[in-house]
Amino acid sequence: MTDTAKTFQNFVGGQWVAPQSGEHFDNVNPADTRDIIGRFPLSNAADVAAAVASAERGFELWRRTPAPARGDVLRRVGDILSSRKEEIADLMTREMGKPLAETRGDVQEGIDTAFYAATEGRRLFGHTVPSELKNKWAMSFRRPIGVAGIITPFNFPMAIPTWKMFPALVCGNACVFKPAEDVPHTGHVLVEIFLEAGLPPEVINLVHGKGAAGAAIVEHPKVSLVSFTGSTATGSKVGAECGRMHKRLSLEMGGKNAMIVLDDANLELALEGILWGAFGTTGQRCTATSRLILQAGIHDKFVGMLEARAKKLVLGDGRKAGTDVGPLIHANAVAKVEKYVGIGKSEGAELRLGGARATGGALDHGFFFQPTIFTGVKAGSRLEQEEIFGPVLSVIKVVNADEAFRVNNDVAYGLSSSLYTQNVNLAFRAMNELDNGITYINAPTIGAEAHLPFGGVKQTGNGHREGGWEVYEFYSETKVGYVDFSGALQRAQIDNY
Prior knowledge:
Elements: E1 10-12, E2 15-17, E3 24-28, E4 36-41, H1 45-62, H2 67-83, H3 85-96, H4 100-120, E5 127-130, E6 136-143, E7 147-151, H5 159-170, E8 174-178, H6 184-197, E9 204-206, H7 211-219, E10 223-229, H8 232-245, E11 248-252, E12 257-261, H9 267-279, E13 289-295, H10 296-310, H11 331-346, E14 350-353, E15 372-375, H12 382-385, E16 392-398, H13 401-409, E17 413-414, E18 416-420, H14 424-433, E19 438-441, E20 457-458, H15 471-474, E21 477-484
Parallel strand pairs: 7-8, 7-10, 8-9, 10-11, 12-13, 12-18, 13-16, 15-16, 18-19
Antiparallel strand pairs: 1-2, 3-4, 5-6, 6-21, 14-15, 17-20
Helix pairs in contact: 1-7, 2-4, 2-6, 3-4, 3-6, 4-5, 9-10
């Protein structure tokens, strides 16, 4: 089937071009590996260099475009995404596996981000403040930075690139975009939509490829800022290189997120939350609920409820009606999940459900893994501490809320957390004391909204936030201007005291 698959190109220098190496890689449907979606460029440093040179030219044009006009382009992008939502959701599910309900939400997040970014083109606020001297004006304002390197993961093929590129573009930067090699088709379609919406061609450059292409973006001296979402291990390398080269950097990395269910919780509501949080996107979210912390009084009852419901989850092609859980993204992901099942067993945790590849019929042709639940997981064990990025849930029993909060906080990551309780005092304590960038009350650890900042603490990131109003500060520089209309030399801190 590879021989008949369409061959795609990079978008560099305002045109679609083949990779300079002439090499390509196959984009495979993870639900059915017999289905080759297309052949995509295996780019190298030479392709990246051409893309950066193009982006530099695009930047000189785009930074002079008024910010409201830049926002107008993104409004048109949002309109196009809206009109093509179902088509794009279908191609995304074919490419990365999660069910259509989820990929529709992925596209909707792009739409929401487009319309939010469009309005921010009129809201790139600075500050006007009094000068300490007479007849002198003092202010700050926002300026674009330059070429932004955008490196994105597979699990949200539309949402995450739009989180990054829409604010970058509204602020006046040009982009060199490398989508994950597992989801190149969605990246290709997004660039087509940019061009249809009227974005000047050299403002956006698309370079497909694997790790070498991403490394070339990070290492290029003319890339002024980098936004990376991916694993903590890779993010650490990106951070070291950007630190050496004094680049502005936003890192969004791993998570080991916990949902706490206390004795007074609405258990039916909590059950719906954990099924969605743990097994939505097949556990392949940085915000996935990979730990379930249960108070002793409801532990046994809730585990029974959870096991009964999780057994009924339907695995399969996400484009087929009735599918609850799609495939993992590739064979290495399956192998990693299998490894952690072995680790859990070796640590003495009890395997209550799943723990093996899902097989039979159409499942034999994809990367499917059974929803997996371990109970008796010990705080501090590898299963409880390390990110798996798959449908594996670790259940930890605690005595009270204080112990639950300690267990939540005692991991290297700090992205998302949730608490199910009817006690308003504990709810507000949780928002103060849980050491995460996001805390949900009576909701799972997933469900971020486009108009609020998104990100975490500790090894989850480096302090910057995606989404909301804060991301616009990352993609722009603050410049301060003084206007002295006194007609005389005035020396700050000297002539006024």
